[in-house]
Amino acid sequence: MNEHRSTSSPTSGSAHRRGRGSRARVRRGGKPPRLWAGLVAGVVLLFAGGLVLEERADTSPRSVDAGDAAGPSSASERPASRKVVETEEGKEDEPEVEVGKEKKEEDTDGSPDAGSIPSSGPGTFATASGGGERVGGSERTLTYVVQVEDGIGIPARDVATEVERILADERGWTADGKVGFRRVSGGTSDFRVRLATAETVDDICGQYGLDTGGEVNCNVGQDVMVNLKRWLLATRYYADDVTSYRALIINHEVGHFLGHGHEGCPGAGRPAPVMMQQIKGLHGCRTNVWPFDSEGRPVTGPAVG
Question: What is the CATH number of domain 125-280?
Answer without folding.
Answer: 3.40.390
